[in-house]
Write a structure and sequence with these properties.
The complex is a heterodimer. Chain A is an alpha/beta fold. Chain A has helices at residues 20-23, 44-57, 72-80, 86-91, 116-129, 142-145, 149-165, 258-263, 285-298, 312-320, 326-332, 347-361, 378-394, 480-485; strands at residues 12-13, 28-29, 33-38, 63-67, 95-99, 107-109, 133-137, 169-175, 193-202, 205-215, 224-230, 233-236, 252-253, 269-270, 274-278, 303-307, 335-339, 365-369, 398-403, 424-433, 436-446, 456-461, 464-469, 471-473, 476-478. Chain A is elongated and about 105 Å long. Chain B has one domain: Glutaredoxin. The chains are: A alpha/beta, B alpha+beta.
Amino acid sequence: MPDQRAAPTLPKAPTGIEGFDDLTYGGLPAGRPSLICGAAGCGKTLFATTFLVNGATRYGEPGVFMSFEERAEDLSANVASLGFDLDGLVAAGQLAIDHVRVERSEIEETGEYDLEGLFIRLGFAVDSIGAKRVVLDTIETLFAGFTDSSLLRAELRRLFGWIKDRGLTAIITGERGEGQLTRQGLEEYVSDCVVLLDNRVDDQITTRRLRVVKYRGSAHGTNEYPFLIDHAGISVLPVTSAELDYANPSGVISSGIAGLDAMLSPGGFHRGSSILVSGGAGTGKTMLTASMVEAACRRGERCLVFAFEESGAQITRNAASIGLALDAHARSGLLRFEAARPSLYGLETHLARMHRDLDRFRPDLVVIDPISALRGPSNELQGALLRIIDLIKTRGITAIFTTLRSDGSLIGDGDLGASSLMDAWIKLQNMEANGERTRTLYVIKARGMNHSNQIREFLMSPNGIRLVDAYIGTAGVLTGTARVVQ
Amino acid sequence: MSGSPGLADTAEHYRFRLFVAGTALRSLRAVESVRWICEAHFAGRYELEIVDIYQQPELAERDGIVAAPILLKIAPLPERRIAGDLLDADRILRGLNIPPATEAQR
């Protein structure tokens, strides 16, 4: 038997689960059993299935799924929605599913016995397809079927030892128990790697979280990481990296508004900068960002818009009224809207989704409209916002955040000067004077460039957004009709 | 032994399948014990199939075998399973839900 533990670095078996392999620096320990535990409905079976399917399809490692709960056909049906074709993999000899039915009343016991039947079935399945990966889901069911728990424990210890001897990378799932990780204390036997899945409800909003409790012989991320289960399967988002070591992309990008570009000395914003657009209701924040998005798409850049208050279709329609053809860009695939109500998910889930979408779509420009819509406990919100900004910055993506708050704070009470994290800050303001209201725009700051300090009048027309120099006379700034008269 | 007068009315035909794991002492004891019980109680009206799960793992999978040794009563229905080294004849007969009347031999 080749002793993998003797290798200088711990060999790992990638799970193919986005993010998880990053935070464990490569995946689960190869040739050893790992324990995945959590309460009912946490995604244990899905995690395990994903591990097997990816093993078979991406890493050339066939796998055996030994299910103590679900029948093979139920298992296939449950994951079919994720695009996993278990039946196809079984037919191709990449996967073997063995359903072990254990029912309490069924078996009488007299005298000594062992679980050799289980070993042999597992060995048979492993040998029949040359499996490298094994899932036992949920082996604790055995404790319901047999009464002699000390015998079961001894047998489980032997089973995990057997898995190690065979060099199989295995996932053992276990139901969360009172005061310990699993009901039967499986963590005592599977001691190499333990992953805890959690599904917490706060304020009626559920957030899934994952934590690597231990990983013997390897460094790993120790935090709780939010993870997602949706049509794309599982993704884990290690969102806590907070480095200021940004790749700083060079170049200047036009905002698509000639008047605004003219206010900035290089003729636009630095690529990769974070731009805050603040202003009250009806000041034109969304349309300003739409202009910038349209300009970026015209340059052939990819844009991703996270809209929290309007649907993509609504923004597209509204933008069309000022002559911006966003729909064409959406059709060509350069522009994508991700619209979701802020209350639909918890903060962590929103963040996790953003992270995933950023990595999948790989945009050049990201819009979060408005970032002030995100809600949550203020201590969490602050951290979350910092991480969103960080997430985008580390990727060198140009970002536009809008906020309804005129003081530039992203959330309530002004407790977070997130504006200080921004490279540029455009303020939109309605000015009321002489019986009329005019929209105005000015640049509060723009790092790394000279910019105009004047207030401009901000006009929206069917031909786009236009900035007009306000008249500055002895009587002060004149806008609207007063400017025209002057 | 077959043809004992007390068995005539309950002369059902029994089918057993005994799964053992290899030739360990425990397996051998179980085989011996089950043979003895069958001969003692169902002589001439039973079939006993002994399966070594090492030799025929696919049968273990088909019958959902986890523990070994394990004795399956396949006929008459309902099916019964009893795991262990099967040394205690009374418990086995009770476990297999075999009416005491058939034990009237001794």
